Amino acid sequence: MPTLCIHDDATQDLEDLWETDLVAAARITVVLDELAGNDELLDLLTVDHYGDYHLEEFSVRKWLAHWNNGRDLWRLKLWT
Would the pTM of this model clear 0.85, i.e. be above it? Predict the structure, then answer.
């Protein structure tokens, strides 16, 4: 069963965002809640190039600079 882990730094970034951009912070929070409760969506977070070219609501890519150094890091980009 996949799980969504959010780094403490990302949590702090989101808390800071609530102070400067309520709409963006709310949107990110909703997306994270949706991901955490949906195993099928969580599985898509490890499909490199998923959603490229705006074909889905979000895009997923390996963070190659870290992958090349042995770290399993991914980037999630919301299109809207």
Answer: no
